[in-house]
Amino acid sequence: MVAELPYEFIEEFGTSLIDFEFKVYTEYFTYDSTNEEVATVGETMLDGNYIVAPLTIYDPGVIIADVYIKGRNSIVGSMRYEIMPIYIQYITIYDENHPYDSEIFVAPGDSIVIKSDIDPSNATIKTLEWNIDGNYNNMISYDSNYGESFQITINNTDTEPEIYAKSTDNNNNYVTSNTIRVRKLLADDFWIAADGYTRNDSYIYADSNEQIVIKAYISPSRLIEEVTWDIYDYQNYNGTLSYSYNQGTDSSEMIIDISSIEENDSISIYANIYSNSSYSVMYSNTIYIQKRLS
Prior knowledge:
This protein has 294 residues and is an all-beta fold. 0% of the residues lie in helices and 52% in strands.
């Protein structure tokens, strides 16, 4: 600011898109702005021994606050203001549900909101540019990567990209945030159970010409994994055991149609999923189907 007025400039407040006030001695002055797209000067008012004029700022730029003696049209002085935007200096991003974690664990279909804290909080432009680092193979969908927060939808968990935000000033200098790594949510439990039985029932009983439905369960329940089934004759005395099986509505359901089963016959069933990667397998409990005895 250059003070050309022959009276002392007292104080100014703020440099953002907000109101601030400047004060000069004497009650005989009024003020005007030479660029009202940048800022306007409001009506003067008495504040103790000072005349106060509110300066309302709209955009960065330069204005001249011309000073008039009340009742006259001639300019008796002016003050030059260069209105500079307040730039973001620090950015912190976090998952709104797990604000202290540097990793978020996701499953297909999850919707995540990543929020931001900026410093200073009164920055002129708070909009951030959000970035996904790495080849994420359409793993993540989003409507916009500009804003104060970033909402994403998880399509698949094939890769583990990192997300960060940045802010750029007029000189193309930029500030980047911390990073959040998006990781596949892993199953912590996996089991199978026949309809009408619990996971603790290792043996279930059936007669010939009976259908058994067995379902696979994964925890957390929102996980969707391809289930692989292993079904074989555990015991087949005298060749009396006969059955067929087919997948149900999806891979988590197996339907077994028993044509013939006799005493001492037994069918063994278990399943597995890829709990971490194609090299890490999680196995279920094993169920045995035996002849129902009268």
